[in-house]
Amino acid sequence: MAIDRIHGCTGCGNCVRACPTDVLRMDPETELATIAHPDACQICHLCRLSCPVDAITLTPEKAIRPMVSWA
Amino acid sequence: MTQTPTGRTPFSTLSRRDVLAIGALGATALAAPVAIRNLGTRPMGQSVKERYDTDILVIGSGFAGTFAAVEARKQGHRVLMLDKGSVGWSGLSPWASDSRPFDPSIYDRDEWMENLSTNCEYVNDRGWFDIFMDESLDIFETLDSWGVHRCKPFERSRVFRRVLRQAGVEIVERVMVSSLLKDSADRIGGAVGFTFDDSSEDCRAITVTAKATILCTGAGAYKSPGFPNWGQTFDGDAMAYEAGAAITGKEFHDTHGTFSNISAASYENWSWAQEVTGAFIMVGPPGRESGGLTIESALRAAETGVSRRGGPPGGGAPGEGGLPPEFAAMAKSAEINQSYKGKGFLAREDLILDFGLPPEGPPPQGKLDKGYSVGGSTAGMGVHKSEGVFSADHSCKADGLDGLYVAGDALGSMLCGASYPGRGFSSYGSAIQGRRAGQFAGEAVAAMEPAEIAQSEIDTRIAAMWAPRERAQGYSPDWATQVLQATMTPFHILYVKEERRLAGALSSIEYLRKHIVPMLVASSGHELRLAHEAANMLLNAEMKLRAGLYRTESRGTHYREDYPARNDDDWHCWVLMRKSAEGGMEMSKHALPEAWKPDTAASYRDNYPRSYPGEDSYRAARHTG
């Protein structure tokens, strides 16, 4: 699952800046952080560590979809 | 005080004293699109211009970039910093915790040099290590004055940002630089890149013209399929190579372990680094043999497979709590190191010190079954401070290329030669090199006219940058990356090497570079970044395979089954590669000073305490044949 959910976000944007792999973005309508590219999560927890309200949940497992086709 | 770059070439029997400087991818990608993509997003609150002109462009904001930018500003130059992520959050810097400052009041300089050179197998640059021993204590004091020793590693981002702002460095974040720019005289005069945040508005091209550019872009790694890889993607090495720089050190590799059930979980394998508030100090000299980042785990995997009994990385049964050999050596070192406590800078009462006891694997997390220990979590990552852009002196200037300076893990300084000599050299090495790059680049630009970059050059680079999003069909960067990972990460390619296997992998990588890279597609800013990263990783894969084929001996982390011994007569050198006029990869040897060779009066095994499988019989056959 890697990055799992964001609950209680206050919209500070810290996690978006902290993520080294562009997993998180700010939603322009809600102005809250959203998980935009979960595939890229490397489970480094920098988003969680940067969050002032402990809103981010991660799990250590990561599912890999099978490589079923060419390109 | 003005420093003079010390020459690497031509080498004579230079005295060390003479050269003292003064001073898992996780879920990959595949055919199906990801569930959430291209959400409308807002920019991160920064106003990004399309065009910048500066004196010195610094790319990357870890230890190397921060010190480079601050030093260049001290000379009064305009400094612009670009980062693919955000200050202090990118690459390896948010995890760097170890340090090993050299305190001349308590340590023996010759012992450090001898031990490190033995550990790094005599292809380490002794000039750089002298500089390290001269300057590392000052780096320690500088970081302390910034407040680094009162926070955890991830909290340094705030420190770096404050220091950069106070110095007057202009910072532009979340921009991926895709190419360096050259003027009509082939001098590097800036770079082009793109924003990837505002996908609702499409990406924007950023052009920076600069008198000098300092690459502080960090390391690269492939990681295994399933393990995220996108933190480090060799961007600097790739851009510099394409611009004509020589690259070195690509045959030597780092090894870290992980756990089978959670092999993608970076944090669980590295959380100990974030638990240290203060200075995580490795005291005492580096060991002659230990270091922890040798290829033992790959050799064990090749010979017997991995232990399925669990335990910490590298071996040990569940419940035993035993440490693998390299960690056991660290434990012994840490015990010895306690004898230094209270001496020199270690006597400071206001400093929170941690003396570098080894990590013991991830902390307990409920009933998490982490599985058995496996290697390969950093497959293809170079030895810290070894692989990267070649500089012919210690000024950090790219050899044969004006206007380009490099520092940190993007610089092939060979500070650590053929293997990582124990913990504590990487972040301080980056800081030292960054500061020198800032200094020498600053001195160089003082006499330079602004770079005049032809608009056609800018247009060409930007067109190449956008190409993946212009294509109607082709291959996803995720697919290319996963094929790359599957090709490069098995232990029998980059760790237990042999000519036919290297050649086989090279054939596949060449095909990917020739046929897939020109057809990569991107449907968003995020994917455009991945496309360029995949191309950079593939270029570096070719370098690693060619360097591995070229060095027909074994040394440090470069083990060739078909040449399982060191060969000082032919290979006491660095391997350089450079893009030829025809576009091919030109290989060459850069000879090292005779004085750096191991002691001829000592036995082979004294000089090279680590042994490879098959080494003794190979050497015996060579000597009798």
Could you explain how this protein is built, in words?
The complex is a heterodimer of chains A (71) and B (625). Chain A is an alpha+beta fold and 71 residues long. Chain A has one domain: Alpha-Beta Plaits, CATH 3.30.70.20. Helices cover 14% and strands 18% of the residues of chain A. Chain A has two helices and four strands; from the N terminus they run βαββαβ. Chain A has helices at 14-18, 46-50; strands at residues 3-6, 24-26, 33-35, 56-58. In chain A, the strands form two sheets. A two-stranded antiparallel sheet of chain A has the order 1-4. A two-stranded antiparallel sheet of chain A has the order 2-3. In chain A, strand 2 and strand 3 (33-35) form a beta hairpin. The longest helix of chain A has 5 residues, at 14-18. Chain A starts with a strand and ends in a 13-residue tail after the last strand. Chain B is of the alpha/beta class and 625 residues long. Chain B contains 17 helices and 18 strands. Chain B has helices spanning 63-74, 109-119, 126-146, 156-167, 235-243, 266-274, 296-304, 325-337, 426-445, 455-470, 477-488, 491-494, 499-516, 525-550, 568-571, 604-607, 615-624, and strands spanning 51-59, 79-83, 98-99, 170-173, 175-182, 188-195, 205-215, 247-248, 257-259, 279-281, 353-354, 373-375, 388-389, 404-406, 496-497, 559-560, 573-579, 585-591. In chain B, strands 1, 2, 4, 5, 6, 7 and 14 form a seven-stranded mixed beta sheet that branches. A four-stranded antiparallel beta sheet of chain B has the order 13-8-17-18. In chain B, strand 1 (51-59), helix 1 and strand 2 (79-83) form a beta-alpha-beta unit. The termini of chain B are far apart. Residues 7-43 and 312-321 of chain B have low confidence and may be disordered. Classes of the chains: A alpha+beta (71), B alpha/beta (625). The interface between A and B is large, with 43 and 63 residues.
